[in-house]
Design brief:
Order of helices and strands: EEHHEEEEEEEHEEEHEHEHH
CATH class of the largest domain: Alpha Beta
Shape: elongated
Number of strands: 14
CATH topology of the largest domain: Alpha-D-Glucose-1,6-Bisphosphate, Chain A, domain 4
Number of domains: 2
Largest sheet: 9 strands, antiparallel
Mean pLDDT: 90
CATH superfamily of the largest domain: START domain
Helix content: 25-40%
Distance between the termini: 64 Å
Length: 327
C-alpha cells in the first residue's frame, strides 16, 4: 500500500514490506542490497560502483547506469541519523532536502516503512513521488525475492531432515522389528455441554467438536465427521510430503482436499439400510513440482495414499471392540 501526503516542500509515502525491520534496514546499509532498490526508470545502480559508509555523516557515493545506452549519472549522499532497525536518514549535499526512512514492526515478517521527504522544491514534487514509487517497488520486489529464496532453502533443509529421519527409522526398525508394533495414544472425548465434546491429548492439546443446530448442537466447533475428513486430508498430505522427501522430489506446493456425501437418515437411525458414515468420498490432490514428470507425481500420490494410516483405516475393515463401563 502506498499513500502520499503532500506537504509544504516535501511529501511522505507509506509502504508495507514483506520482511521484518532488521531485514529491511540492511537494504540501507549494505552495498549489494542498496543497489537492488536505489534505481530510477531506465537506470540501475551497479553494486560494484557503489560505496557506503554506514555511520552518521558517512558518505554514500555511486553511479547510476542507463540500461539503454550505458550513460552514467554520478550521485552523492550522506547519512544523517542511523538508529537500527527503526530509522535511517539521508541528506543531500548542497541542498536542504533530507529523507528519513522510519520502520515500524508489524510482526509476522512485515514492516511499515514511511518515506518522509523534507525540503524538496514544490515544482519537482510530482516527479520525485513517481521516482520514489519506483524505488520502493524495487525494494519490495527484492525483499519478496529474498523471502522466497529463504523459504526454498528452508524447504530443502526440511526435506533433507525428513529424508534422514525416515532412513534412520527404517534402519532402526530393520534391526529391532519387535519394536515396530505398539499401542497408539488413546483419544478420550468428554461431553461438556449439549453435544459439544472436548478431546484431550496426552501433552495437553485439545480438540473440540460440536454438531449442527439442526440436530441439537450449537455449531460452535467442527463436527466429528469434518475432523475425520481433516484427518484423512492431513494424513495423506503428510505421507505425500514424506515420500517426496524420501525420493528427493522438491515440492513447490501441495494441497489435499477431502469431501464426501452423506445421508443423515443413517446418523439418526431412521433406516438401517442407510450407512451412518459417508456414502462416498473423494480425495483431491493439487501438487506442483517443477520439472517432475506428471506420472511420477501420480505414482507418488498413490503410494502415499496406500501407506496413509488414516486412509487405510477408512478403507479397511479394522477390528473394533466396543467396551461399556457403567456405574
Amino acid at each position: 500500500m502506498t499513500h502520499s501526503d503532500e506537504r509544504l516542500h516535501g511529501f511522505s509515502v507509506t509502504r508495507i514490506l514483506p520482511a521484518g525491520p532488521s531485514k529491511v534496514f540492511s537494504y540501507f546499509t549494505d552495498e549489494e542490497k542498496f543497489a537492488r532498490w536505489f534505481v530510477v526508470s531506465g537506470y540501475l545502480t551497479p553494486a560494484a560502483r557503489l560505496s557506503l559508509d554506514a555511520q552518521p555523516g558517512g558518505l554514500i557515493e555511486g553511479v547510476m547506469v542507463s540500461e539503454s545506452d550505458g550513460s552514467e549519472i554520478p550521485f552523492e549522499l550522506r547519512y544523517g541519523t542511523i538508529d537500527p532497525p527503526t530509522t535511517v536518514e539521508f541528506r543531500f549535499p548542497d541542498s536542504a532536502e533530507n529523507v528519513t526512512m522510519a520502520l515500524v514492526d508489524l510482526n509476522e515478517g512485515r514492516t511499515q516503512l514511511t518515506y518522509q521527504n523534507e525540503g524538496l522544491p514544490p515544482e519537482t514534487r510530482a516527479e520525485a513521488v513517481a521516482g520514489v514509487g519506483v524505488m520502493l517497488d524495487a525494494l519490495e520486489s527484492a525483499l519478496s525475492e529474498s523471502r522466497r529464496h529463504a523459504f526454498e532453502r528452508s524447504e530443502v533443509m526440511a526435506s533433507d531432515n525428513i529424508r534422514e529421519s525416515i532412513e534412520n527409522a527404517k534402519q532402526y526398525l530393520s534391526e529391532h522389528p519387535d519394536e515396530a508394533r505398539y499401542t497408539d495414544q488413546p483419544a478420550t472425548a468428554v461431553i461438556e455441554d449439549g453435544l459439544r465434546c472436548r478431546v484431550e491429548y496426552a501433552d495437553g492439546a485439545v480438540v473440540v467438536t460440536d454438531m449442527p443446530t439442526g440436530v441439537g448442537g450449537e455449531n460452535s466447533a467442527p463436527s466429528p465427521g469434518w475432523l475425520a475428513r481433516a484427518a484423512l486430508a492431513s494424513c495423506d498430505a503428510t505421507l505425500i510430503a514424506m515420500r517426496a522427501a524420501e525420493l528427493s522430489i522438491p515440492l513447490q506446493s501441495l494441497e489435499v482436499t477431502v469431501d464426501s456425501e452423506s445421508d443423515d437418515r443413517g446418523l439418526l437411525g431412521m433406516d438401517d439400510a442407510v450407512p451412518a458414515g459417508p456414502l462416498s468420498s473423494r480425495i483431491l490432490v493439487r501438487i506442483v513440482a517443477e520439472g517432475v514428470d506428471p506420472q511420477r507425481l501420480r505414482d507418488l500420490v498413490e503410494w502415499a495414499d496406500r501407506h496413509s494410516p488414516v486412509s487405510d483405516a477408512v478403507r479397511r475393515a479394522v477390528p473394533t471392540a466396543v467396551v461399556v463401563e457403567s456405574e
